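pasting input
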Amino acid sequence: MRKTVIEPNGKNFQYWKDIWNYRELALNLAKRDIVVRYKQTRIGLGWALIAPIISTIVSTFIFGTLANLSTDGSAPYFIMVFAGNTAWTMFSRSLTTSSSTFIMNANIMKKVYYPRILSPIGAELAYLVDALISMAMLIIMMLVVGYYPTVRMLLFPVFLFLNLVLGMAFGLFLSAFNIKFRDLAQIIPFAVSIWQYITPVVYSVDSIPEKYRLLYSLNPAAGFVNAFKWCIIGDMKFDWFTFLVAIGWTVVFVPCGIAAFRKSERTFVDLV
Amino acid sequence: MDERLKVLEIRNIKKKYVIKHIGKSENQTSVFEKVKAKLKSPEKEDFWALSGIDFDVYQGEKVGIIGKNGAGKSTLLKVISRITEPTDGRIEMLGTISSMLEVGTGFNGELTGRENIYLNGAILGMTKAEVDRKFDEIVEFSEVGKFIDTPVKRYSSGMFVRLAFAVASTLESDILLVDEVLAVGDSRFQKKCIDKMKDIASSGRTILFVSHQMNTIRQLCDRVIVLNEGKVIYNGDVEGGIRVYNSEAYTQKSNYVEFADLPRPVGYNLDKAEILSLQILENEPCIFEADESIKFRLHIKTKVENIGDLSFRILIWQADETPVEIAFTKTFANINDVREFDVDVSINDHNLAPGLYKATIILSGGKSTANSENLDYVYPAFIFEVLHSDGTSRSWPRQWGRSHFDDVDVQLVEDGNAQ
């Protein structure tokens, strides 16, 4: 028979085994999120298409046409924006939902045990489905305008996933503070919307003046958004520097985020 | 040594909560002072919801956990079910464990009954294969029938809890923690739930069951643990536990009671007279031996003139609200002005059997016995325990009734002729 030991200070030797035992729950939570998000709407999952298309049209008009920002390689501006948005949305949604996971799921977490990390994982999986729908849309648009994807395209799941992981790592790290300082729930979405402008979503890194480039490249989000755009835009060059910076942030923040999350999941029920 | 398999071992479990008091001073009139008070770090106080819990549970046992509100029952279940962590101590469990602390956890109104069954099943730790296997049983038990593909937000509250209970009750874990969830649905469904729990109980699984319903505890459990202020104060057979629980729940700590905040029955607006307080005389706390008089002092206030003759009726109830005795007092005073005064009451020869009782005091007044009206009604006026005349509280069989004759003459009659 399975033996479980409960002791204070998180001496839980079967943490990862528990997560494995409950793995189906993550899929169920993801399914719930998708069904609930689109069920009541007339066009259902169509919203996963419409939202990125509209924001691409608006960005293309404002940043591409009015502000005349540069694109990467020879890609049409709107293709570059669409790709950038898909990667950025994955990153930012991962961050915001993970950071508020204790508060959003308090009612369930107060009443039943399951490995808490499955809540943000489930939510991220649901957003992954949205991202895949966007990708399908992007490929169709590329075929329509005759800007054909290259073999690099096959790597997009890797970079999409890295965006998810890094966003989630930051989110998990912040979730610990979100319980005690509810102001963070207001600050995070605001900070994220500003962060988008210092990330190469609607413009090319090349348009950043050389002297600011080093500083700019420290932005943790830049590397994976860039890398994602690279696999879609055939003649863009891979920016190793921002990529390695982002890998560095990931290597540091994934363990930090998980550790912070594990520390607060032990007793957050007493605080909310 | 006990041959049975020990499936749960709880050792010295403690749980501390930190309570913060925001400093509140009386003269926070200016904005400046208010801000200052807010910035001052709140005073912290430790509260021990559990202060050292020890017990073992063996395979197949059905253990009832009872105690007053705030005794620590729910905290204990939360710690055992890993919802929150203990501050100190150690628990070892064998086998799978699942908890029903609430039915319908994670149910989503937008999802259909079917979708919710799978989601809730997963939250409770079931695999899809398990839910598949149990699906028909769940639907049948819940009686939602053709509404299974309707979003649950359109369900009646009865349908909702029936479905929720049905999912939770199919859990196949080795140890099941249950908190009061049986109180769902109408009385017919409640009975069905209890029968289901009995089935689960007789299937050899281990159950820890928290409830305030002593009848349910009697039906389901074969051992009882009584908690009080975060400690185990009793661990043993069911009837003994319920007796301890009753005495814990009802023992009056103080021998002085004020009635200002006590709600009165409808129709008593206390505009003529009011019983303000009661002081038990001599005995502290309210424990009397069988032949002892129950003495107390009432503080009464009249609010209008010419109330006239005052008298009491004193009713004695058992702890479970069965009426036992009544006393009608003589007119004790004739009060015709507005004032406050004390009255001493002594109930002699009450003849009550050992046990726990509650008293009601009704104050009436009027110009004559014929037009006397009830002025105040305090219940419970006080709660008291009667012991055997030898000072013990050993049990008094139910079939003996609640009072006894204390003066019965018995004489041996020789040759059929009275002396």
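fyi The CA atoms of residues 39 and 106 of chain B lie 38 Å apart.
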